[in-house]
Amino acid sequence: MLAITMLMGLAWSLGITSSHFQLDGLVISFLVVHLLLSLVILVLRCIMDKQVRQHFSVLFTFSLELAYQCCEISNRKVNQTNDVHFVT
Length: 88
Fold this sequence. Notes:
Structural class: mainly alpha
Shape: elongated
Order of helices and strands: HHH
Number of helices: 3
Number of strands: 0
Strand content: under 5%
Low-confidence stretches: none
Mean pLDDT: 81
Largest sheet: none
Distance between the termini: 76 Å
Radius of gyration: 26 Å
């Protein structure tokens, strides 16, 4: 919450100074600070929201199951190719 407050204050002051002085560096820093502020708010929302955490855990377990199934299929293919017997 402290990071949000600090970024909001910095964004507000950069917005006023960039609109007054019309310098490219101030405008770019104003946009970067707002981007950082939105990322901080998004990350905090994802961490604090129970539903989002549940969706991430479902996605993580699904990806693990999918990776396990893909490895199992590729192991079967390798085993099938190794089981070739030559008749002499």
